[in-house]
Amino acid sequence: MEKTENHSITDMSLAEITALCNNLGEPAYRAKQILSWVYEKGATIFDQMTNLSKNFQKQLAEQCQVLQTRVDSVTQTGYDTEKLLIHLYDGNIIECVLLREGKRITACVSTQVGCAMACQFCASGLLGLKRNLTAGEIVEQILHVKNHLLSGEHLTNVVFMGIGEPLANYDNVVKSVRIMNAEWGLGIGARHITISTVGIVDGIRRLAQERLKINLAISLHASDDITRSKIIPMNKNTGIKNLIAAAWEYFEITGRDVSFEYILINGINASKQDAESLAQLLKGMQCNINVLPVNPVEEFHWRPPSEGAIEIFCNILQKHGLVVTIRKKKGNHINAACGQLRLQKEKFHGKGGDILLNKLVGKNK
């Protein structure tokens, strides 16, 4: 796919496509016809839209394209997890993950090429941030997952937990959520969409004002600033106190429980005292705590605690009345588990010598 500056249909709202139709001399109802072809019928080119005239199809193709990305490859594990590598117009590759658990089928999408957060358990930020994804590039991950589902399967949930910090790409992420949620778009209920953040306070407060009623998950990972800053360096500019205040604000405005992600790292944040401190920090808040033993990443030396230590940690939280879930490991066999998605430099040999190519091989948070 050659690099192009054209817009794709997936980048556009109903109002924007309606304006495009009007500019081309077509009635407003054509916009919903186009959107139905893309989001309901899975059209990938304008020629497939048979209720549009050939001339209109040609005019549309001159103005934009249906999709701007394509699936590069798919890797599957026997644990009902599949990894889709998505090729972008500029040669970059991103990744989304398909997770099956009974009738719950979830797409985990990326929001950036690389990541600037540099969390010390996550491979995604090892090579830094290359660029933000457009709204269309985010939405198309969902379309690729839907097209990959088996007969009779239906996508039920979307989580913004792939590579990148969603709230650092705020406008494109929110636009993509509106397209996913819209009746004319993918029609995914707000309560089935989750945005995960390492804690961009201004972004959380701004998201609350959108009143989208989507779920918010915050990567907490510690109950004090010293420990959290060791795990998540950007905490030095935020502070847990400000982060918890923003979480309260999100709950009060939206009425949606906030989830806190907590990676358990042996010798760092997994002691009995850590559990007691976390319970005190979240006292009185209507929230959920998702506990996950840290997954191995070659460049980091963190290790998970024992199963017994994990059980003790969770029991302490539960005794304080907190809702705790131990997340199942899914996808670690194909480097698609929590913290394992990365931009990896692979070496290729050519006439000009060794060429380093950035390539994605896993999942984020």
From TrEMBL:
Protein name in UniProt: Probable dual-specificity RNA methyltransferase RlmN
Gene, per the UniProt record: rlmN
What positions does the entry give for S-adenosyl-L-methionine binding?
Answer: G164, E165, S196, S219, L220, H221, N295
In terms of InterPro entries, this protein maps to: Aldolase_TIM, Elp3/MiaA/NifB-like_rSAM, Methyltransferase_A, RlmN_N, RNA_MTrfase_RlmN, rRNA_lsu_MTrfase_RlmN/Cfr, rSAM, rSAM_sf
| Residue ranges occupied by any Radical SAM core domain in the UniProt entry | 101-333
State its location(s): Cytoplasm
Residue sites binding [4Fe-4S] cluster per the record:
C115, C119, C122
**Enzyme class label:** transferase
Query: Other comments?
Result: Reaction proceeds by a ping-pong mechanism involving intermediate methylation of a conserved cysteine residue.
What family does the database annotate? Belongs to the radical SAM superfamily. RlmN family.
* Cofactor binding description: Binds 1 [4Fe-4S] cluster. The cluster is coordinated with 3 cysteines and an exchangeable S-adenosyl-L-methionine.
Q: Which UniProt keywords apply?
A: 4Fe-4S, Cytoplasm, Disulfide bond, Iron, Iron-sulfur, Metal-binding, Methyltransferase, rRNA processing, S-adenosyl-L-methionine, Transferase, tRNA processing
Q: Name one GO cellular component term.
A: cytoplasm
PANTHER family, per the entry: 23S RRNA METHYLTRANSFERASE (PTHR30544), RADICAL SAM CORE DOMAIN-CONTAINING PROTEIN (PTHR30544:SF5)
Pfam (any one): RlmN_N
Q: Cofactors per UniProt?
A: [4Fe-4S] cluster
Query: Does the keyword Metal-binding feature in the UniProt annotation?
Result: yes
